[in-house]
């Protein structure tokens, strides 16, 4: 028991170190690149940028308020278990924003919106990738999407709700800051998404094959088909040592979807075995797949 406790403490310390690094990188992207160049983005950051145009408060304070509101609503609507997932970053990330605001440091020597959009996306993507790789969530629009899905739109996929929210924030940025800023925000959001995938799975991987051996195959398969909107194959296998039968699920998806699936599996069946295989090419009918007739 003592050994297990030490390993757990060691893991927590490592997680905290990575999360601290992620928060610092993300805060640097926002405070030292995005804000000084008058940019916006999707998600909670973009929403706070819009509100900041009308309320004379520091960005970090407004972000803290927004993050705490999301945490409270998440805990009430989705339960304490979901609230715990975003608790750490709800506290640490706005705190990092406050610290970086005190330095008043800017990465670019002079205002350059194009460079700012690119580098903000790169640093923010690195921040997200590190956080997701440790199994944590920033409690942003993804959490809001979960709440909307559960309470209002249970039959709409999470990815569609999330896309709609980010689109609304970016469009609103266009009305407040101008159309050019909204278009730059779209570029930043795309770079963030791509950079997150690169941090998680490298620069070459577009599709991964996820194999799951589990005793909760029905719940996991429902999540994959309804929320992730990917196909899944199931076969019955027998362990050579235990002689016990379990289901093996096989999915082809994007790296980001693979992370979401892994996190869901961890909640539904902590004893499951998850294998992720990098795939060079996939031909067939599916998002991100190559056209079998053209290749």
UniProtKB/TrEMBL annotation:
Major subcellular site: membrane
TM ranges: 12-35, 61-79, 86-107, 113-132, 152-175, 181-201
A Pfam family the protein falls into: YitT_membrane
Entry-linked InterPro entries: DUF2179, N-reg_PII/ATP_PRibTrfase_C, UPF0750_membrane, YitT
Membrane topology: Multi-pass membrane protein
Residues in DUF2179 domain copies: 230-284
A Gene Ontology cellular-component term: plasma membrane
Subcellular location: Cell membrane
Gene3D superfamilies linked to this entry: 3.30.70.120
Keywords: Cell membrane, Membrane, Transmembrane, Transmembrane helix
PANTHER family documented for this protein: UPF0750 MEMBRANE PROTEIN YITT, UPF0750 MEMBRANE PROTEIN YITT-RELATED
Protein name as it appears in the record: YitT family protein
Organism of provenance: Clostridium aminobutyricum
Upper lineage: Bacteria, Bacillati, Bacillota, Clostridia, Eubacteriales
């Amino acid at each position: 028991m003592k050994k297990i406790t030490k390993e757990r403490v060691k893991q927590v310390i490592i997680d905290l170190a990575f999360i601290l690094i992620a928060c610092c990188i993300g805060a640097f992207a926002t405070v030292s690149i995005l804000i000084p160049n008058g940019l916006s983005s999707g998600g909670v950051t973009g929403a706070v940028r819009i509100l900041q145009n009308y309320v004379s408060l520091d960005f970090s304070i407004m972000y803290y308020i927004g993050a705490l509101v999301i945490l409270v609503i998440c805990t009430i609507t989705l339960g304490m278990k979901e609230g715990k997932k975003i608790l750490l970053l709800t506290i640490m990330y706005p705190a990092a924003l406050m610290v970086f605001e005190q330095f008043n440091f800017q990465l670019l020597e002079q205002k350059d919106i194009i460079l700012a959009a690119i580098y903000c996306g790169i640093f923010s993507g690195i921040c997200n990738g590190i956080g997701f790789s440790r199994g944590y969530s920033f409690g942003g629009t993804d959490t809001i999407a979960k709440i909307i899905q559960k309470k209002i739109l249970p039959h709409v996929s999470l990815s569609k709700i999330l896309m709609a929210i980010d689109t609304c924030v970016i469009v609103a940025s266009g009305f407040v800051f101008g159309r050019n800023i909204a278009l730059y925000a779209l570029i930043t959001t795309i770079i963030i998404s791509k950079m997150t995938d690169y941090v998680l799975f490298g620069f070459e991987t577009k599709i991964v094959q996820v194999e799951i051996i589990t005793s909760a195959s029905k719940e996991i398969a429902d999540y994959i088909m309804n929320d992730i909107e990917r196909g899944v194959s199931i076969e019955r296998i027998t362990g050579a040592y235990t002689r016990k039968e379990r289901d093996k699920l096989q999915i082809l998806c994007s790296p980001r979807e693979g992370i979401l699936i892994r996190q869901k599996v961890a909640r539904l069946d902590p004893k499951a075995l998850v294998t992720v295989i990098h795939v060079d090419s996939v031909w067939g009918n599916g998002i991100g797949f190559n056209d079998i007739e053209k290749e």
